[in-house]
Design brief:
This is EAL domain-containing protein. By secondary structure, the protein is α/β, with parallel strands linked by helices. The protein has one domain (about 1-250): Alpha-Beta Barrel (TIM Barrel), CATH 3.20.20. Helix content is about 45%, strand content about 20%. The protein has 11 helices and 9 strands. The chain has an 8-stranded mixed beta barrel with strand order 1-2-4-5-6-7-8-9, surrounded by 6 helices. Strand 8, helix 10 and strand 9 (about 235) form a beta-alpha-beta unit. Helix 3 (about 65-85) packs parallel to helix 5 (about 105-120). The longest helix has 21 residues, at about 65-85. The N and C termini lie far apart (about 50 Å). It binds guanosine-5'-monophosphate (2 copies), sodium ion (NA) and manganese (II) ion (MN).
Length: about 260
C-alpha cells in the first residue's frame, strides 16, 4: 500500500519522532525515567499512532529497521539529557521492543553498539516487551533475553495481566520488572473490590522476585491508593501524557 511505501521512505528521511512519558516514584513524585513512544509525523495525514503503523511495519518487514531507529534515537536522547545535567544515573529510558527484535541476535549487537557509542550506563536502558511476544516466541527468546540482560540493560514485561500470564514463566525468565496493564487499575477508585486485586498482583509479582510498575494512572485517587498499597512506581495521564522531548526539562523541573 501507499502507507507502507511512505513508511519505508520515512525510515530513511526522519519522519518518525519519539514522545516520552514519565514513570514516577509514588512515594516522592520523582520522575525515575521515561518511556519512549514512537509517532509518525506523516506529511499529509498528520500524526499517526503506533497502534496503526507498528503492525504495518511488522507485515512489511520494516520492524527491525524501525526498532533500531527507536533504540538509537532514545539512547542518544538520554545521552543528551545526561550531558545537559538534567538527569542523574538513576534515570532510565524505557524502550518498547517487538517480538521480532527479541528473536534477533543482531538486535543484541545493536544494543551493545549503541551503549558503546553513547557511553550510557546499561542500567539506564530498560527494554519493554509484551508477555504475548515472549510466550509466542520459542526457546531462543530465553537466550536472547539472557543475552540482552548480560549487557546489563533492564528487562520489563509490558502489558502484564493481558496475555497468558503464567506464574511459571515469571519465575523462569530473566526479567527485572513487570509493567502491569492499565486494565488492572481502571476500576481503582470506583470499584471497592479493586484494591484487593492490586494487592494480590503486587504480592504475586514480588513473590517471583520482581517489582511492578503500574500504568494507566489517571486520577490522584488512583495514585494515592496505589501508594497506600505499597506500590513503588507508576505511569499515566495523571502524572503526564507522553510529551515531545522539548517538554521534558520543564517536567523535570516541576517534579516534587
Ligand atoms: O504511544 P501509544 O501510547 O499510542 O502506544 C500504542 C502502542 O504502541 C503501545 O502498545 C506501545 O507499546 C506501542 N509502541 C509505542 N512505541 C513503540 C516503539 O517504539 N516500538 C514498538 N515496538 N512499539 C511501540
Ligand atoms: O502498551 P504500552 O503500555 O506500551 O502502551 C502505552 C500506551 O498507553 C500509549 O499509547 C500511551 O499513550 C497510553 N497511555 C499512557 N498513559 C495512559 C493513561 O493514563 N490512560 C490511558 N488510557 N492510556 C495511557
Ligand atoms: Na510499553
Ligand atoms: Mn502497557
Amino acid at each position: 500500500s501507499q502507507l507502507v511505501e511512505d513508511l519505508r521512505a520515512t525510515l530513511k528521511d526522519g519522519g518518525l519522532t519519539l514522545y516520552y512519558q514519565p514513570v514516577v516514584e509514588l512515594a516522592t513524585g520523582r520522575i525515575e525515567g521515561v518511556e519512549a513512544l514512537v509517532r509518525w509525523n506523516h506529511p499529509t495525514r498528520g500524526f499517526i499512532m503506533p497502534d496503526e503503523f507498528i503492525p504495518l511495519a511488522e507485515e512489511a518487514g520494516l520492524i527491525s529497521e524501525l526498532g533500531l531507529w527507536v533504540l538509537r534515537a532514545a539512547v542518544h536522547q538520554l545521552r543528551d539529557w545526561i550531558d545537559a545535567g538534567l538527569v542523574d544515573s538513576r534515570f532510565s529510558v524505557r524502550i518498547n521492543i517487538s517480538a521480532t527484535d527479541l528473536q534477533s541476535l543482531q538486535f543484541i549487537e545493536d544494543v551493545r553498539n549503541v551503549l558503546k557509542e553513547t557511553g550510557v550506563r546499561p542500567e539506564q536502558v530498560v527494554l519493554e516487551l509484551t508477555e504475548v511476544a515472549i510466550v509466542k516466541g520459542n526457546e531462543l527468546d530465553r537466550y536472547s533475553l539472557g543475552g540482552l540482560r548480560g549487557l546489563g540493560v533492564g528487562i520489563e514485561i509490558d502489558d502484564f495481566g493481558t496475555g497468558y500470564s503464567s506464574i511459571s514463566y515469571l519465575r523462569r525468565l530473566p526479567v527485572d520488572r513487570v509493567k502491569v496493564d492499565r486494565s488492572l487499575i481502571t476500576g481503582l477508585g470506583t470499584d471497592p473490590t479493586q484494591p484487593a486485586l492490586v494487592a494480590a498482583v503486587l504480592q504475586l509479582v514480588r513473590a517471583c522476585g520482581l517489582e511492578a510498575v503500574w500504568e494507566g494512572v489517571e486520577t490522584a485517587e488512583q495514585a494515592e491508593l496505589l501508594r497506600g498499597l505499597g506500590c513503588l512506581s507508576a505511569q499515566g495521564y495523571f502524572f503526564s501524557r507522553p510529551v515531545p522531548p522539548g517538554q521534558i526539562p520543564e517536567l523535570l523541573a516541576a517534579q516534587a
